[in-house]
Design a protein that fits this description.
Its EC number is 3.1.3.25. InterPro entries: Inositol_monophosphatase-like (IPR000760), Inositol_monophosphatase_CS (IPR020550). Keywords: Magnesium, Metal-binding. The chain has 282 residues and is an alpha+beta fold. 34% of the residues lie in helices and 26% in strands. It has helices at residues 8-31, 55-71, 80-85, 108-113, 182-189, 204-213, 226-238, 267-277; strands spanning 43-48, 51-54, 76-79, 99-106, 119-126, 129-137, 142-147, 151-154, 157-158, 170-174, 196-200, 218-221, 242-244, 261-264. It has a seven-stranded mixed sheet, with helices on both faces. The chain has a five-stranded mixed sheet with strand order 11-10-12-14-13, with helices on both faces. Helix 1 packs antiparallel against helix 2 and helix 6 (204-213) runs parallel beside helix 7 (226-238). The chain starts with 7 loop residues before the first helix and ends in a 5-residue tail after the last helix.
Length: 282
């Protein structure tokens, strides 16, 4: 527990380990025991066959909602499954209280298939500014963390994205067509050009981690749901990368962004991807 007078920076200095412990426990107690052991009745569809939810999602989010609110009194939690049940709860991202943004199982489709490419995403924001994030892939034994102005780390090792290798095609993870409008499809098709190698994305959180690690060059995503993006955007920023919308402005977790947008390992790559998405050519 913390005192009301404690600032976010002070909270993170004193309690970041507690957040990490909560994330690890949620995975150990609610997610991993169900991985590759899901029964049919533990899997449901939300918007369609590519939008799945499982008992692991629901129970892990419940665990994190209670644990994170206890760690930071006065904070609120915006979780994917809670917003699905009550869309109005998303508005807390724009409120005055510190907000935890939670995706309990990012990459639920992979989780259901028994693939290890899923993760738990937690970010802490205040007044629309991302302050810290945790990206935990339990099946891969990877924990990435970021605190604003303090760097990004994977299993304790500093992450530095760096620029892409000159002369190599850019590896760009893109939105699944099911989640794009006709206009967004046309924008994403512009990435099919010499020097760029677009591909369908997996878990958004792990795609952001790949950019922060310098293993992938950029993303091009067409949806705004903060739980998919918040943790990864800060991770990329703190690894030296950047993110831009088609207006040339950084992505805002509070919404109202011009889509698709990109997160990239360096500013030059971000500008190149945005130019293509905006129909301005390479």
């Amino acid at each position: 527990m913390i005192e009301d007078i404690e600032t976010i920076d002070e909270f993170l200095t004193r309690h970041a380990d507690g957040v990490e412990e909560a994330v690890r426990k949620a995975a150990a107690q609610e997610i991993m025991p169900r991985w590759r052991r899901l029964a049919a009745h533990e899997v449901d569809q939300k918007a369609g066959p590519h939008d799945l939810v499982t008992d692991a999602d629901r129970q892990a989010e419940q665990y994190l909602t209670e644990a994170l609110a206890d760690l930071l009194p006065g904070s609120v939690v915006v979780g994917e499954e809670a917003v699905h049940a009550n869309p109005a709860s998303y508005e807390a991202i724009r409120g005055e209280a510190p907000v935890w943004i939670v995706d309990p199982v990012d990459g639920t489709r992979q989780f259901v298939q028994g693939d290890p490419g899923f993760c738990t995403l937690v970010a802490l924001a205040h007044h629309g500014v991302l302050r810290a994030s945790w990206t935990y892939a339990p099946a891969l034994d990877q924990l990435a963390t970021a605190v604003r102005d303090q760097g990004a780390f994977l299993n304790g090792e500093r992450l530095l994205a760096g620029p892409p290798e000159p002369g190599r095609d850019l590896d760009v993870a893109t939105s699944h067509p099911d989640y794009t409008t006709d206009e967004q499809k046309r924008a994403l098709l512009a990435l099919r050009t010499p020097g760029v190698a677009p591909r369908p994305c997996g878990s958004a959180g792990l795609e952001y981690l790949a950019v922060a690690r310098g293993e992938s060059d950029a993303t091009a995503f067409s949806w705004e749901a903060a739980w998919d993006h918040a943790a990864g955007l800060l991770l990329v920023e703190e690894a030296g990368g950047t993110h831009l919308t088609r207006t040339g402005e950084p992505f805002r977790i509070t919404g109202g962004n011009e889509l698709p947008f990109t997160a990239a390992r360096d500013a030059a790559t971000a500008r190149r991807v945005v130019a293509l998405l905006s129909g301005e050519g390479a």
